[in-house]
UniProtKB/TrEMBL annotation:
Residues 30-152 form the CMP/dCMP-type deaminase domain. The keyword Hydrolase applies. The lineage of its organism: Eukaryota, Viridiplantae, Streptophyta, Embryophyta, Tracheophyta. It catalyses: 5-amino-6-(5-phospho-D-ribitylamino)uracil + NADP(+) = 5-amino-6-(5-phospho-D-ribosylamino)uracil + NADPH + H(+); 2,5-diamino-6-hydroxy-4-(5-phosphoribosylamino)-pyrimidine + H2O = 2,5,6-triamino-4-hydroxypyrimidine + D-ribose 5-phosphate; 5-amino-6-(5-phospho-D-ribosylamino)uracil + H2O = 5,6-diaminouracil + D-ribose 5-phosphate. This is Riboflavin biosynthesis protein PYRR, chloroplastic. In the C-terminal section; belongs to the YbiA family.
Length: 485
């Protein structure tokens, strides 16, 4: 998700009281806010590569306010941002303050991030937001405090306008995970490019290109930061898109086609799955022979009893997708907006006029008849990209999670039959469950015994990769002990 906005409207995502304790605390807040923002910016450098893990960034600052070290999580399963930052800071970590955009999880199950800060001699930790996942919320903060480290959480220990803005930047960089923690659908962004007269194609359907090359590179970045890109059948028939991220870095998202009729061309760029997979979601029973053809090309087909945007998004949520980029036409966009599955809109407006009463527009019929019914975006940002104007904003605010979670004792008080730390039952149906890395859908690598020798191991990219290969001898999983962060 690209977040380098230049001109932003002043309305905050989440409103909180502003409290000022005089000039000293204001300076103190300004410094904390600046370093937290830096940690958030750092964390975003690997957007798209860390999923389903959050984006983590860490800045180590000395008591004189100098940056001693920085780090961010490069990809899921790599060294935590905190460990990288204290390594970079070396001896300057002793007595320093660590700024984290988000409370760390415990990816390796061994509190690597917390241990790195403790062992480096960090005196104070400032946290932008608590971890959004219930089973991880507060545990790293408790652990740090138990080692005598002062931990301040923005919005809990102190509040001010600058700190609130910094906190907001932390919410933005991990918006998909925060949504996952509180809703049953992935974070969805509707992106489109339109002419100044509001058309996404000429009346002939021709659309290449409306926006500039620079804008289209920004779209590649948006794709690179998303888990999947979704279009409708009409876009496949009309544009034959590739939907790949071609800006030279980052990952390429899964392509999803949503089609009721399955009336699609036999040859299409999206059926080439040599580099990235395509999933076609359709109505149960639609064109069985075409389903077979797609399957023979390696395209996965998923049938739905009720094909609609909400059902489809709930399905992809269960499969562990955090963020979806909608690059569809107006009909599907309207249906997705009506189903309340779109959270953010990103529109590239090109200074061109194409005209045409039949030329399509980005959003079809929403059933509104009066301007007072129009959906107002919040937190609107404007940015010039080459000759185009990029306008973005939220249709739904990023949910603000309650800062305090029930302690272990309080949980037992609420429901004594629940043992939140029951060790013999582990859940991993969803990738974000406590042991979600065991899920077929989790991209965690696993190590398994291989061959006759006891110390022979082979690494598989995920549990699913392992199961896809026929095995002659029963194997025992030995190394997938890390938990979902
Ligand atoms: N025409 C148009 C866009 N069109 C979108 O991009 C898709 C084509 O992607 P690809 O085949 O990967 O290049 C197309 O199907 C439609 O969803 N996007 C833009 O940013 N600007 C443009 O002017």
């Amino acid at each position: 998700m690209a977040l380098s906005f230049r001109i932003c409207s002043s309305s905050p995502l989440i409103c909180r009281a502003t409290l000022s304790n005089g000039d000293n605390s204001r300076n103190y807040h300004t410094t904390d806010a600046a370093f937290i923002r830096r940690a958030a910016d750092l964390s975003e450098m690997s957007a798209g590569l860390t999923s389903p893990h959050p984006n983590f960034g860490c800045v180590i600052a000395t008591s004189s306010g100098k940056v001693a070290g920085e780090g961010y999580l490069y990809a899921q399963g790599t060294k935590p941002a905190e460990a990288l930052a204290v390594e970079a800071a070396g001896e300057f970590s002793r007595g320093a303050t660590a700024y984290l955009n988000m409370e760390p999880g415990d990816c390796h199950g061994d509190h690597t991030a917390v241990s790195a800060l403790v062992q480096a001699g960090i005196e104070r930790v400032v946290v932008g937001i608590r971890h959004p996942l219930q089973h991880l919320r507060g545990s790293a903060i408790r652990e740090l405090r138990s080692h005598g480290i002062e931990v301040n959480v923005l919005g809990e220990d102190f509040e001010s306008k600058v700190l609130e803005d910094a906190r907001k930047s932390c919410l933005l960089v991990n918006a998909p995970l925060i949504h996952r923690a509180c809703s049953r659908v992935p974070f969805s962004v509707l992106k489109y490019a339109m002419t100044l007269d509001g058309k996404i194609a000429a009346s002939s359907g021709h659309a290449a290109w409306i926006s500039s090359k620079l804008s289209r590179t920004r779209v590649f970045e948006l794709r690179g930061g998303s888990d999947a890109v979704i279009v409708g059948g009409n876009t496949v028939r009309q544009d034959d898109p590739r939907l790949t991220a071609r800006h030279g870095q980052g990952h390429t998202p899964t392509r999803i086609v949503m089609t009721q009729s399955l009336d699609l061309p036999e040859k299409a760029n999206l059926w080439d799955v040599s580099e990235v997979s395509t999933i076609v979601v359709t109505q149960r029973g639609a064109r069985k022979s075409f389903q077979k053809l797609l399957a023979s090309k390696g395209v996965e087909v998923v049938e739905f009893d009720m094909l609609n945007p909400r059902e489809v998004m709930e399905y992809f949520h269960l499969r562990g997708y955090l963020s979806i980029l909608w690059e569809c036409g107006g009909t599907l966009a309207a249906s997705a907006i009506s189903s309340s599955v779109i959270h953010k809109v990103v529109a590239f407006v090109a200074p061109k006029i194409i005209g045409g009463s039949k030329a399509p527009s980005p959003v079809g019929d929403l059933g509104m008849v009066e301007m007072t019914q129009a959906l107002n975006l919040i937190d609107v940002c404007y940015e010039q990209v080459g000759p185009d104007m990029l306008v973005s904003g939220f249709l739904q605010p990023i949910p603000d999670l309650l800062p305090v979670i029930p302690s272990e004792d309080a949980t037992v008080e609420i429901d004594p039959s629940v043992d939140p730390f029951e060790p013999s039952i582990i859940f991993f149906y969803k990738t974000w469950d406590l042991y979600g890395s065991f899920s077929n859908f989790s991209p965690h690598p696993i190590r398994m015994p291989y061959g006759e020798e006891n110390d022979d191991y082979m690494t598989w990219s995920s549990v699913e990769h392992y199961y896809q290969v026929p095995h002659n001898s029963p194997c025992k999983m030995v190394s997938c002990s890390f938990k979902t962060t």
